[in-house]
Amino acid sequence: MFLYGDKNVVHIIKNCKIVRGEILDVDIGIEGGTIKEIGKNLDGEHLFDAKGMLVLPGGIDVHVHFREPGFTHKEDWLSGSRSAVAGGITSVVDQPNTDPPATTLSALKEKIKIAEKKSLVDFGISAGVTNENIPLIEGLAKEAVSFGEIFLGKGRDAISYENLENAIKAIKKTSLLPTVHAEDEECVEKNKIAYKIRSPHPHSLARPEECEKKAVLKVIEIAKRENYRGHICHVSTRAAMERIMGNEKITCEVAPHHLIFSLKDDEWLRSRAKVNPPIRDLRDKNFLWEMLNRGEINILASDHAPHKIWEKEGDIKDVKPGFPGVETMIPLMLNFVMEKRLNLERILDLVCHNPSKIWGFKKKGFLEEGFDADLTFFDLKEKRKIRAEDLHSRCNWTPYEGFYGIFPKITMIRGNVVFEDDEFYVEGGYGRNLKDRVKAG
Ligand code: DOR
Ligand code: ZN
């Protein structure tokens, strides 16, 4: 399995274009899975010639739902991680809403065992935090890389604000990051009535921006009081974003679908457009773009939430919320680079550098000496129409059907080519747990 992982031999990849403010032409030397040297005319064993391809550090997607255990008809660790690799993602953080949920030590360990056996990509498991498991936080921290996404509410799988504050006190002692799905449950309950109103946008009306804003304000308040950091998942509105900005303790992520879709897409996506938080209006979308380009948004994460197409068709109130996205995130963004809507440096911050820094993953997320040789190789001139049948998720559909993306030709993890020209070169089990890589926050 270890093709190029030998110690004491430096393998050279010739003619790489890398991003350093400008684009530089360099060779990259790899030893034992680590980037050993970056420079001109390096000496060592020839590995391959990148022929001027753009080489980026592998993407870190901090928000995926790989659905195993429990929902393997939608996805499992093998299909999810193959989808990741084929989209230039080399590390993922998996979310706890599986069955059983990753809210107890035994469930968490069971999930880690599965991922160790089946994942192609390096992975961290995020532990769930609920009204019932606060006493378990200290123990969960021994296995998890973060806490969340935390859902707000009174139920078993969620947490009240009061309990959230207690949970944050416990999480603070572990120095791990708490991540919150910021939608206020009471507000969502109150607005459910909107499903009964005739509207082209029932789901967006049923979860209005005030629900997100309210939850964000509460999280900020708690973070300030407890003097501890917090992370807001998939921010979708201007109202929430404006509250987050300028708070030193709060980081946030945005998902591609909130940058790509707006209410007018309900027309053709119909019930498939359901996602939480919902698709918003054009003003919100444009504001997120502005903040993305200004560097106010820390992370781009897919919120890869695969559901079968039959789980997405029907009455919008009953269908499952969520889109697959781990494989299309970087390709769509690189296409935006070609359309001059985003620059390359910004993408690297959003999907490589900042996820690594915020989660504290040592030696991940940078194309620099001493870091893992997690590398992705692209030909920016080769855009491709996205088709569900070409993607690798088990859910077999994508909301981006017919959109353009620039996909990696080669994905390398820790010095080994794991994917090239649509072939996989490692088996499930290659991926490693990132737990022992997490630096204390
Ligand atoms: O739309 C969503 N789907 N939002 C979430 O927060 C969860 C996710 C899922 O797991 O399906
Ligand atoms: Zn979420």
Could you describe the 3D structure shown?
- The chain is of the alpha/beta class and 441 residues long.
- The chain folds into two domains: 11-55 and 369-426, Urease, subunit C, domain 1 (Roll), CATH 2.30.40.10; 59-359, Metal-dependent hydrolases (TIM Barrel).
- Helix content is 29%, strand content 21%.
- It has helices at 77-86, 105-118, 137-140, 161-174, 185-191, 202-206, 209-226, 238-244, 256-260, 266-269, 282-294, 329-338, 344-359, and strands spanning 11-20, 22-31, 34-39, 45-49, 54-57, 59-64, 89-94, 122-127, 146-151, 177-181, 230-232, 250-254, 299-300, 375-378, 384-385, 404-405, 410-413, 416-420, 423-424.
- An eight-stranded parallel beta sheet has the order 6-7-8-9-10-11-12-13. It has a five-stranded antiparallel beta sheet with strand order 5-14-17-18-19, with helices on one face.
- Strand 18 and strand 19 form a beta hairpin.
- Helix 4 (161-174) crosses helix 7.
- The longest helix has 18 residues, at 209-226.
- It is globular and about 65 Å long.
- It starts with 10 loop residues before the first strand and ends in a 17-residue tail after the last strand.
- (4S)-2,6-dioxohexahydropyrimidine-4-carboxylic acid binds next to loops.
